[in-house]
Structure formats: structure tokens, C-alpha cells
Amino acid sequence: MNLRKIHIVLLLVCALLLGLGGGYAGVKLAQSNNNDAQDNKAITENIEGAKETNTPKEMNKVGQAFNLIKENYLEDVDDQQLIEGAIQGMLTSLEDPYSSYMDVETMKQFNEQIESSFEGIGAEVSMVNDTVTIVAPIKDSPAEKAGLRPNDQVLQVDGESLDGLNLNEAVAKIRGEKGSKVELEIQRAGVSEPFNVTITRDTIPVETVYSKTETVDGKKTGIIEITNFSERTADEFTEQLDKMEKDGIKGLVIDVRGNPGGLLDVVEDILKQFVPNDMPYVQVEDQNGEKSPSYSELEERKEYPISVLIDEGSASASEILAVAMKEMGYDVVGQTSFGKGTVQQAVPLGDGSTIKLTFFKWLSPEGNWIHEKGVKPTIEAKQADYYYTNPVQIEEPLTLDHTGDNIKNVQIMLKGLGYDPGRIDGYFSEKTEEAVKDFQSANDVSSTGKVDEKTAGLIETAVVDKIRNGEDDKQLEKALAEIYE
């Protein structure tokens, strides 16, 4: 891990990636004409300044507490445990979910994650109102396959409550080796009762750019999906965009839905290909309100129209891209994004551990701050109703004349899969029973018309597969329909 990575300035959407270790949506703070040596020098000076800061007299109280515990506590206490606890306590008192302490082991795991693939469930998280909250599952990860969504709250892990744990402690319970299983209790907005999801951990690849073309009104249109802004993302994006431009695309859709962020220099390198030099692509504001804009060297914008796709899982660096393109006059399609507009700096403490502290705000080209508000789309578009259904918890089979939210969920899912339940209000009608029988028959299950645990699982799997395959993607359809208007 070189100096540039270790001393990176972070724009965090989450404190940890639920993989082998801690991963964050980090970014390098950069000026338009800075080189790596200048960046490293400035960051190192900040770190040295922190070391030289005078310690206030009140810190004697901390030393007194340390000695009191060491000399009098009933059981032996490790020095490092007390020191790290004091650091964590100071950071917790800030009530800032993006400022935190990362111990030696967590930093080691993060370094492994940022440079290669890693193991886990593949979801980025944040602490929201003292609750571990999913920011976004990673594309093709176990978390995505299990149906986890942005803003899902994780209440328990393998039957143990996460109440009172910080984010690092909660993640330590969730992560694990490939092939092992973890059961999460999830609370989802709009669902009255929590539900359990069992996920098998796996290797999570760091491939971040996917592209394809579609013909819209006789015009070849490029679609590039960015799932995370990691070290190779800008190069991959440029390679795939160059290929599509040589193939003669007449329009482009950039899809950052479910993208929780990444490295600032990476999103900068992408924006430099679109934002001309007469406007900044991002600004950073310090404690004194002084703003530092960053500019490209691009003379002109692209000749073809561009749209950007966002949703509630688009955060951090994704929002930098989306709001810059929006303020250039391009359409942003989908739903309001996550809303992460602060910048953190990772300051090594000399022993391999790091403090991650909020130093700055980032602002849009026009100086707007989207923190806790998100980027609003110019064209709002939601997915089909079955995209928002929830896992069905089965204690007793659901049958004719039953009512409830579980039945409503099943009806919406069946309708989304092409079966006709007759109604979607939660009443198990004869028409719903027929739809269940039709589904069971098509899936080689005894056609009882009852929704037992096996049938519910098959319905959920079919819905997740349809969503992951990109079928019936209303938001993408809307972006393509509007791009040449």
C-alpha cells in the first residue's frame, strides 16, 4: 500500500464494506492542477500538524482514568483496549457516522479489499440513527441475490441484537469466510414486521464497469453501468466508452444506481471527459467557508445527448457525477439519491491504525450541498411494484380467505411474474389460489394452491432473478425513451 493510498482523503458513504474487512467509499481531495507529489505533501503536512498539536490540560483526566482502571479494576485489562476505547469514545461523541477509528486489523483488511477481490456478503453500510443501514448491495453479490435493498436496517445477526454496537463491531459479526452462512434480521420501510434473510458469503469481485448498446428510434445508444468507483474504474470506463464511440453511438446513458461511491480521483477522471473547462466539476469547502473548485481541460462537451440513472442507493462519488451532469443540463432519471456531501480524511496514527475524520464539504459545480437531501432527478421514474416487495415469512401456509401483508406481497410478486392473482389487496381469493396453482405447476411443485415455505421461496427467487436479469427495468426504459426528446 503506497503513500497515496494510505493517506487518501475520504468521501465516505459508509464506514465499512461488509466483506473481508473495512472498505469505504473513499476519495482523494484534488485540485485541477495538482500532481500526486503535491497531494501527498499536503496530506502529510496535515498529518504532521495533528501530531504537533498541543495536548490540553484536560487530557490529564483521561490519563487518570486509565491509571484508575489499570490499578483497580476487578479483572486484567489490556492497555491497547483502553486506548482504543478512548479514541472511539471521542469520535462517537461527535455524533458523525462518517468519523471513526479503524484499528490495525481493519486497515489491513481494507487494504486487501481495495486492491483485489474479497469475501463477504457484498453490501455497503452506514450507521443511520444508531442503526446499521444498507446503503447498497454490490452488483451480483450474495446480498443482491438475497434481495437486500438500500435503506434496509440490520437489527440482528444470527439472533444477536446489534443494539449498542458501533459499526465496526456490527460488521465484525456480519462478515465471514466464503461458504459460511449468516442470518440477518431486517427491518424494511413500509413493512410492519422485521424479517430474516439467510445469506451465504462468497468472493466479491471488484469488476465495476459494464456496458452494452441498444437501438432507440433507429439510433445506437450506449449504456454504461458503474457499480463502484475503484482504482481501475476510470480506465475501464474510458476503454468501453471509446469502443462505443468508435462504433458510432448517438447517445449515452450512465447508470450509477446502487453505486455507493468510491475514489474521488476516479470520478474526476470520468467527469473530465464530459464537463468542459468553463465550469468546475466539483468544489470542496473547508471549515472557513473557502471553496476550492476543480476544472477539466476539456474544450467542448460531447456532441451526443447523455442521461444519468440514479436511485436511493446512489451515493457519494455517484452523486458528484450525477449532480455535475445535471447542472450541465443533462437529464437525471430515477429516484432521489442517498445524500452524502461531506469529505473525510484518513489520518494514520503510526501503528497501522487510522482515524477517519470529517474535514470538508463537497459542493456541486454551482455550489449546492446535497448532504442529507440527495440529488433530485429531472425525470422521476420508479420500478414496477414487484421490485419493492419483501420476503414472505411463513409460519402457517397462506390459503383461501386469509388476509394480510404477506398475501399482498405474494400477489404483487405473482403479478410481476406474469400470473393473474385477481387482486393485490391482501385478500387470498379464488383467483389468487388459481395463480398460485399455475406458478406451482410451472415450477414442478405440487399444485395445492397454498403458499407454504417452499412455494414462497420459489416465488421470491423468481422475482429476484427477474430483477437481476434487468427485465422490465422501467427506469432504464424511461431514460432511453427520453434521451432523444
Automatic annotation (TrEMBL):
Signal sequence coordinates: none
Keyword Hydrolase listed: yes
InterPro entries linked to this entry: ClpP/crotonase-like_dom_sf, CtpA/B_N, PDZ, PDZ_6, PDZ_sf, Peptidase_S41A, Peptidoglycan-bd-like, PGBD-like_sf
CDD domains cross-referenced by the UniProt entry: cpPDZ_CPP-like (cd06782), Peptidase_S41_CPP (cd07560)
GO MF terms held by the record: serine-type endopeptidase activity
SMART domains in alphabetical order: PDZ, TSPc
PANTHER family from the UniProt entry: CARBOXY-TERMINAL PROCESSING PROTEASE CTPB (PTHR32060:SF29), TAIL-SPECIFIC PROTEASE (PTHR32060)
Similarity comment: Belongs to the peptidase S41A family.
Protein name, entry field: C-terminal processing peptidase
The organism's taxonomic lineage, starting at the top: Bacteria, Bacillati, Bacillota, Bacilli, Bacillales
